[in-house]
TrEMBL record, chain A:
InterPro entries the record matches: BCAA_transport (IPR051010), Leu-bd (IPR028081), Peripla_BP_I (IPR028082)
Lineage: Bacteria, Pseudomonadati, Pseudomonadota, Alphaproteobacteria, Rhodospirillales
A Gene Ontology BP annotation from the UniProt entry: amino acid transport
Organism annotation: Thalassobaculum fulvum
Leucine-binding protein domain span: 27-363
The protein's name: ABC transporter substrate-binding protein
TrEMBL record, chain B:
Protein's UniProt name: Branched-chain amino acid ABC transporter permease
Stored PANTHER family: ABC TRANSPORTER ATP-BINDING PROTEIN, BRANCHED-CHAIN AMINO ACID TRANSPORT SYSTEM PERMEASE PROTEIN LIVH
GO terms (BP aspect): amino acid transport
Compartment(s): Cell membrane
Pfam families registered for this protein in UniProt: BPD_transp_2
GO molecular function: transmembrane transporter activity
GO CC field: plasma membrane
Record bears the keyword Transport: yes
Keywords in alphabetical order: Amino-acid transport, Cell membrane, Membrane, Transmembrane, Transmembrane helix, Transport
Length: 389, 290
């Protein structure tokens, strides 16, 4: 009798011990992206980048496996919130990754924060998400609207530009990008001679705005447009001949490699700033571009690298030994690694990424347009504006 | 802001260019509306189809003019399929069912565009003949935009000749005025409807191909243009060519000069105009039927 009890407890101890030593913890990731709607192309790029990072660095996680549960936000805040609830409550994910639209991020922020689930933001750039509404559970590996544009203020002034006219769509990101640039440009000594915020997504004809901008007599025009609006804007800018007298500068999404070829020759010579371009010369980027192109048949965009780095950040957090949600969030806030876009780290004060910003010109390559890097602003860090984690 | 003449001439041309694009779209919609009493919400999707087909055609043939020729034909063919498969059956189903069916078509087309052309916006080059800029009256203006204005005027002239001087035009006018009476007089109203529907589709396709070099070609371009087009049709009055051109000019000018003079109000200016017209002239400015 005594013997069998001893034997049983030994067996029980062994059963408990086996899972802990032989295989490491497996993680469940909720990947929440727009797979339909206006940002579907961006969702796909982020998804592909994320998958590639996990595949590439699978071997480093000591046997841990990562299971991905995908959900579609449809770029609608209420849908995003419902899917977030499902991922956190029903699927019990350890960590969430994704979010393209800042509108969706705003809608899910409180639920994510209160549930204590770590969220790696792979696009949404609203300054407030790592500013006044920051959370210790929300880590952003993409960019903030201000971060991308701030270095252009000094840079343009040093290039001899004194008077700038600004244009952007009339929504939160448009305002933040332009206001950050304007503040930096004015601080450097420049003057904003005028500007306009055009109705978001309903403006097809920029002719009236371009004519008005030209008549204000600026040295340069600085704009933020993305996607379809960027294509329309750049083409119409060229067709009105504004380029001959007033050069175009902007936020790098204007000439994103994702769609710059649809803009055609009109995009040549446009100078913008962004956190990633495929032509960065580093071994990490060369390997990334090669692996991504081989896997998906096209060169990676800044969105792909954001997905890739969301994956890298997760791998780093797993490697640190974090197993539960709180520990993962803690670990994510401290990661630092070498990204295809250069050295990156998470700012412990805001949980926003610290990264290089590349000022690049769109130039003609072999058959397609490519990016020529003119300057690099190193380790750009956002000010701690109201963030109390 | 500068108040010199050239600034206002350029803005007037901007307004005219937008008006003509709206006219190409709304004229098909309004005649189908007026003649068939059919609410075709998928008209915007046909415009987008014209743009997508145009992008592919011009890329395939290496010339803009391939798009110009192929897009209207292809969209008219799709129109024929729609007419035979759906619209003929829905003729007497009442406006609510028609709205539901054509509203559903919008989503079908959206997904077809995504499957066929992907989610990334596309662009198309201007024809070499009209690239660059033209100088006149002391201003410099993109030549392609002048081409759009010219094309709109040509279509307007052709349609008004067709309606006022030909037998088909007389039949269409009779059909819009009183379809039952026209049928009693031995006119095959159904066949006229079919021809008019195809023509409307072809014009939507043409508008798509013409707009593609100026705008970006996106899957949602059809839904984005639908509302302004419906506003044009309602302001102008259902079923009339005069209404379509008057409505297009009004919207084109209000939108352009709204953007110049009061940018904050530009988005609502069009709807304010719509409300005013509906209060003062509920049937529109130039209704086909008195």
């Amino acid at each position: 009798m005594k013997l069998s009890r001893t034997w049983l407890s030994a067996a029980a101890a062994l059963m408990l011990a086996v899972p802990a030593t032989a295989h490491a913890k497996d993680y469940k990731v909720g990947l929440l992206l727009p797979y339909s709607g206006v940002y579907a192309a961006l969702g796909k790029e982020i998804d592909q980048g994320f998958e590639l990072a996990l595949q590439t660095r699978l071997g480093e996680m000591a046997g841990s496996k990562i299971e991905i549960v995908r959900e579609d936000t449809e770029v609608k805040p209420p849908v995003g919130l419902a899917k977030t609830r499902k991922l956190i409550l029903q699927d019990q994910v350890d960590v969430m990754v994704g979010i393209v639209s800042s509108g969706v991020l705003g809608a899910i922020r409180d639920f994510v924060h209160q549930s204590g689930t770590p969220l790696i933001v792979a696009n949404a750039g609203n300054d407030d998400a790592t500013g006044a509404r920051c959370s210790r559970f929300i880590t952003r590996v993409s960019f903030s609207n201000g971060q991308v544009n701030r270095p252009m203020g000094d840079w343009l002034y040093n290039k001899g530009v004194r008077k700038v006219y600004t244009l952007a769509p009339d929504y939160a990101a448009g305002h933040q990008m332009i206001e950050t640039f304007s503040a930096a440009f004015k601080a450097a000594g420049g003057t904003i001679v005028g500007g306009e915020f055009t109705p978001f997504r309903t403006t097809k004809d920029f002719g009236p705005y371009l004519t008005k901008a030209q008549s204000a007599g600026p040295d340069a025009i600085f704009v933020f447009y993305a996607g379809g609006e960027a294509i329309s804007f750049v083409k119409q800018y060229a067709s009105f001949g504004v380029a001959d007298s007033v050069p175009l500068y902007g936020s790098g999404f204007l000439t994103s490699p994702l769609y710059v070829n649809a803009e055609g020759p009109a995009a040549k010579g446009v100078v913008t700033s962004l956190h990633y371009v495929p032509t960065i010369e580093s071994p990490e980027n060369a390997a990334f571009v090669k692996a991504f192109s081989a896997a998906y048949g096209h060169a990676p965009s800044e969105y792909a690298v954001q997905g890739y780095d969301a994956g890298q950040a997760l791998v780093e957090a797993v490697k640190s030994g974090a197993t539960d949600r709180a520990a993962l969030a803690e670990a994510l806030g401290k990661v630092r690694f070498t990204s295809p876009r250069g050295p990156v780290e998470i700012d412990p004060a805001t949980n926003n990424i610290v990264q290089n910003i590349y000022i690049y010109e769109t130039v003609q390559g072999d058959g397609t347009l490519t990016q020529k890097i003119l300057d690099v602003a190193k380790a750009v860090r956002d000010p701690v504006s109201g963030c109390q984690k | 802001m500068t108040a010199d003449a050239s600034f206002w001439i350029v803005q007037t041309l901007n307004a005219l260019q937008l008006s003509m694009l709206l006219f190409l779209l709304s004229v098909g919609l309004t005649v189908i509306f007026g003649l068939l009493h059919f609410v075709n919400l998928a008209h915007g999707s046909l415009y987008a189809l014209g743009a997508f087909v145009g992008v592919s055609a011009s890329a395939f043939a290496g010339s803009y003019w391939a798009a110009f020729a192929v897009a209207p034909v292809a969209v008219a063919l799709v129109g024929i399929v729609l007419y035979v498969a759906l619209i003929r059956r829905m003729r007497n189903a009442g406006p609510m069912n028609q709205v539901l069916v054509t509203f559903g078509l919008i989503f079908v087309f959206l997904d077809l565009f995504r499957l066929g052309w992907g989610d990334i916006p596309l662009g198309m080059a201007e024809p070499d003949l009209f690239s660059g800029r033209t100088e006149f009256l002391g201003i410099v203006y993109p030549t392609y935009r002048l081409f759009i204005i010219g094309l709109g005027l040509v279509v307007l002239a052709a349609l008004s000749l067709l309606l006022s001087r030909t037998q088909l035009g007389a039949i269409v006018r009779a059909g819009v005025d009183n379809g039952d009476m026209a049928a009693c007089l031995g006119i095959n109203v159904e066949r006229v409807f079919f021809v008019v529907f195809c023509l409307g589709c072809a014009l939507a396709g043409l508008a798509g191909a013409v707009a593609a070099p100026v705008l970006s070609v996106t899957t949602d371009m059809g839904t984005a243009i639908l509302i302004p087009t419906l506003v044009v049709v309602v302001i102008g009055g259902l079923g009339s060519l005069r209404g379509a051109i008057a409505g297009s000019l009004l919207i084109g000018f209000v939108q352009t000069f709204g953007a110049v003079l009061a940018p904050q109000a530009a988005a609502v200016a069009v709807y304010a105009l719509l409300a005013v017209v509906l209060i003062l002239r509920p049937a529109g400015l130039f209704p086909a039927r008195g």
